[in-house]
Design a protein that fits this description.
six-stranded antiparallel beta sheet, TPR-like_helical_dom_sf, 2 domains, alpha+beta, Serine Threonine Protein Phosphatase 5, Tetratricopeptide repeat
Amino acid sequence: MFYNIMINRITLILLSFTLLTSVVLSQDLILPRISPPAEVSQTIGLSKITINYSRPAVRGRIIWGGLVPYNNGKPFPWRAGANENTTIYFSDSVKINGKDLPAGTYGFHIIPSDAEWILIFNKHYKAWGSFFYDSSQDALRIEVIPERIYFNEWLEYRFDNITSNSVDINMHWEYLNVRFTAQFDETKIVLKSIREQLLSIPGFSWEGPMQAAQYCLDNNINYEEALKWIDQSISRNSNFSNNIVKIDLLRRMGRDEEANKLEETALKNASEDELDRYGYRLMNKNKVHEALIVFKQNMERNPDSWNAYDSYAEALKLSGQIKEAIKYYELAKQKAPDEQKDRIQQILDLLENP
């Protein structure tokens, strides 16, 4: 009895192993696909868009109204590629042709016709093609009109017209191109990221909060929070760089008296290099008169510095005071190292022989 039971168990185990081995061994080989897979990505600001799709070829076939049918006017979705779902991933909430779409991955489908096409972003993105498409899972539909352009043998997705917060996404196959625009709320996304980053390692340094405040200045946003960030930076390590950011911020907020007082203190303690950089910062803002004052102060503090004279002369030239500019370029040339003399002489030649 015991012997028979053991024989039966061994037989069952061997049979199970044989079946498992058969299943494993019967799996399909991985071979090249007729419509090869592709992936394209684009970063806009801090946001990322990724499209995964397969690329069918024309191969002499009629595509629109043929291989991709218009279905006699009866709406029928196409997978906008080949094989599995074409998917589009947005790392952040986005506007598609002005319509809101939450962050996430979507199955991308198209209902083509001989007029307007319907582009569909569907929450179900793991299906094979459009065979299991469920319109109740649509997150967004938009209507577009395709444009006829140059021939493209292989279906292609590409990005163009890139700006700091938007990009055009194209699906181009045969002679037709479908285009739509993805636009992000860049400042909202960046501010959210800044707040999160300042709760980690960057928040322990003086540079991180200063960079956050500078971003707000550069984009004319969020001044009150920016002031808190720059004060945080100064509390970590008060220096010329973060004090200058605070000066600019106070002026932007209309608090000129505080800004002037802080500027006076900052300039008094600044090094030659810091004064020079601040002067050029002012010139880049078309504040040439203010830059002249800073460069002159730097020159008087550092009478042996050729660079101080050179910078002052450049500001004079920019302000139209050519005779004075020539005078100080001559002084800069006298003090300059040999490798700088030719450059200064070329400037003098242009000023003296306009």
